[in-house]
């Protein structure tokens, strides 16, 4: 699930992606891979990760939240309009 939110520190709109990766080991690996890859990329056409939020303790950790820049449209809409 992805939601739009206001970053009170910067005043900018951000996208917050909620991930629940702990249901299966495959989901954990996929989430870790996504975070590692997006954290390393620095390119104008790739949305970078601003912050990764998680629970304070491992016992409480059920979800991970990835904060990114909010885009005006999604990839599906962009590709559909270019046809």
From TrEMBL:
It comes from the Eukaryota. The keyword Magnesium does not apply. Pfam families: Pkinase (PF00069). Residues 1-83 form the Protein kinase domain. SUPFAM superfamilies: Protein kinase-like (PK-like) (SSF56112). Gene3D superfamilies: Phosphorylase Kinase, domain 1. Keywords: ATP-binding, Kinase, Nucleotide-binding, Serine/threonine-protein kinase, Transferase. One of its GO terms (molecular function) is ATP binding. The keyword NADP does not apply. InterPro entries: Kinase-like_dom_sf, MAPK, Prot_kinase_dom. This is Protein kinase domain-containing protein. The lineage of its organism: Eukaryota, Metazoa, Spiralia, Gnathifera, Rotifera.
């Amino acid at each position: 699930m992805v939601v739009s939110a206001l970053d009170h520190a910067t005043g900018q709109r951000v996208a917050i992606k909620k991930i629940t990766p702990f249901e299966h080991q495959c989901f954990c690996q996929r989430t870790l891979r996504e975070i590692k890859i997006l954290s390393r990329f620095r390119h104008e056409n790739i949305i970078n990760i601003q912050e990764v939020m998680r629970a304070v303790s491992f016992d409480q950790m059920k979800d991970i939240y990835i904060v990114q820049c909010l885009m005006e449209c999604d990839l599906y809409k962009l590709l559909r309009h270019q046809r």
